[in-house]
């Protein structure tokens, strides 16, 4: 090899070495930058790590929050928005007990979410707990639904008119069963009493920690009238074990042949909704990442199938619009409960 060839070969080796060193430095700089962004919460969790969701369901198994939460979890998995979903049921006090536990356990946790909704607002208004929704982070509203009132198929009370007549004669003899104190079915029963001239404070309301307990009480004849979302009673209504006697919607629900309270002469219109909150003290980037996960899940076929199966109305709302909605609904619900004689 002549001198020129030797110099050319040496130059190639040096250039290759310099290129490799520059590439290594660029890679090292990139990884350090990504790590810094992640530590600062500037990267959405899905972009930097697998998502393992921890879901607090502040109710016992078998109720509306439980069924909605598990349907959402399934949609997260099916849509690949999350790798795993872990559930924790903690019922009682209209979700306030679960809320308190969530506040203590999920601080700064970008993978933790909690089911909630109008029922929790009612529970907070009535019980005035030390921990409120101001401690956690709004993420999204998911669904809206109206309450249906049912009686056992063998009940001598066949219609809402029969129930009202009995209520007027002896308010304490009509046992209303449903979710926690302050739930939308509790508010609806109190509203009905006020509309027909009965002192709402005399409403004999039996609160249950979950939909499963309430359903068992209705089927067992331990309560006179049961109230909840239509989806929780649908299979028993279709099987002839329960009779639906009124729904709290403005108009009849599509595909459901149950008269509204209003068309029967009782001005009782009240909607329910369910949503999701994140943990206390999460960053704006973590909130955005959780919102992205929820939105992606609600676009899945799994979620659409569950909406149809359960008769849930899709009502997705995120960001400031959801923040404002919760504030407005809280104020409206407080006013309704005051007028119903519950406060």
Low-confidence stretches: 3-9, 23-27, 29-35, 37-49
N-to-C CA distance = 100 Å
Strand-residue proportion: 15-25%
CATH level-two architecture of the largest domain:
3-Layer(aba) Sandwich
User: Could you state the order of secondary-structure elements as H and E?
Assistant: HHEHEHEHEHEHEHEHEEHHEH
| CATH topology heading of the largest domain | D-Maltodextrin-Binding Protein, domain 2
Overall residue-averaged pLDDT value:
87
User: How would you describe the shape?
Assistant: globular
Percentage of helical residues? 40-55%
CATH superfamily of the largest domain: Bordetella uptake gene, domain 1
Instruction: Kindly give the count of domains.
Output: 2
If you compute it from the alpha carbons, what radius of gyration comes out, rounded to the nearest whole angstrom? 27 Å
Give me the number of helical elements: 12
Helix-strand makeup class: alpha/beta
The CATH C-level name of the largest domain is Alpha Beta
Q: State the major sheet.
A: 10 strands, mixed
Number of strands: 10
């Amino acid at each position: 090899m002549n001198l020129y060839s030797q110099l050319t070969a040496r130059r190639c080796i040096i250039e290759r070495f310099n290129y490799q060193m520059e590439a290594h430095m660029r890679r090292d700089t990139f990884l350090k930058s990504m790590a810094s962004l992640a530590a600062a919460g500037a990267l959405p969790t899905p972009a930097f790590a697998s998502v393992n969701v921890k879901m607090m369901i502040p109710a016992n198994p078998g109720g509306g929050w439980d069924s909605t939460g598990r349907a959402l979890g399934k949609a997260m998995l099916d849509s690949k928005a999350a790798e795993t979903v872990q559930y924790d049921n903690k019922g009682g006090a209209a979700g306030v007990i679960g809320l308190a536990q969530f506040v203590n356990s999920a601080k700064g946790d970008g993978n933790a979410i909690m089911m909630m909704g109008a029922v929790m607002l009612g529970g907070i208004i009535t019980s005035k707990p030390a921990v409120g929704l101001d401690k956690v982070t709004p993420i999204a509203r998911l669904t809206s639904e109206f309450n249906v009132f049912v009686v056992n198929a063998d009940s001598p009370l066949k219609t809402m008119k029969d129930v009202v007549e009995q209520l007027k004669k002896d308010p304490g003899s009509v046992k209303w069963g449903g979710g926690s104190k302050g739930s939308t079915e509790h508010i609806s029963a109190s509203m009905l009493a006020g509309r027909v001239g009965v002192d709402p404070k005399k409403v004999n309301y039996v609160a249950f920690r979950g939909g499963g307990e309430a359903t068992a009480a209705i089927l067992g004849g331990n309560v006179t009238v049961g109230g909840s979302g239509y989806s929780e009673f649908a299979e028993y209504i279709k099987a002839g074990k329960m009779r639906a006697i009124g729904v709290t919607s403005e108009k009849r629900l599509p595909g459901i042949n149950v008269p509204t309270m209003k068309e029967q002469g009782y001005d009782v219109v009240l909607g329910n909704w369910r949503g999701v909150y994140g943990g206390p003290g999460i960053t704006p980037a973590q909130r955005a990442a959780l919102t992205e996960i929820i939105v992606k899940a609600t676009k899945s076929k799994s979620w659409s199938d569950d909406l149809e199966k359960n008769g849930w109305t899709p009502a997705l709302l995120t960001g400031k619009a959801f923040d404002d909605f919760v504030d407005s609904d809280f104020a409206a619900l407080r006013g309704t409960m005051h007028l119903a004689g519950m406060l």
